Amino acid sequence: PYLYFSQNGERSGHSYGIIYGARMTNDLARFESEPILLLQASQRWERVNWERNRCNEGPAVIKHKGVYYMTYSGNSTFEQHCGIGYATARHPLGKWTKNRANPIAATNLDIGVSSPGHNSIVSSPDGSELFYVYHTHADPIRPSGDRVVHIYRLGLYSPGRLILAGQT
Fold first, then answer.
1. Which of 19, 21, 99, 166 could serve as 39's disulfide partner, Cβ 3.0–4.6 Å?
2. Is residue 162 helix, strand or coil?
3. Position 106 pLDDT exceeds 80
4. pTM of the complete model beyond 0.85
5. How far apart are CA 53 and CA 139, in angstroms?
């Protein structure tokens, strides 16, 4: 088993979020090895407010046909620039490669979506479909801490391509 998490904080006038991973003991009581850095803000869409925010957080990982997929939030959830990206790897602890088509979900005020983020991936009861659950601002025009939940079908395509396939 593996644990994925983000370390968040403030330094040098900006907030940050860095994603780590570690192998756990089988009883889940402790780390088998020290956590290692997996992802941090690096892509252009994650640099919108670079002077104030450098954040990757909220990782969710699944394995499909030998490829690990990590979805994550980028930027600050309290602004309209938050979005969801993903990276792939052949091993649970990487090397993780961010997809060049990121973000896969971003603010789109034409459809009332502001600052999508903090996701989970779940399967249907019969295991035939995957669903992507995430939140957005309740009021897209005035971002705040109020959120609403969205659920989309998730498509996984080889080699290593992930898409949101339609709202449920």
1. 19
2. strand
3. yes
4. yes
5. 22
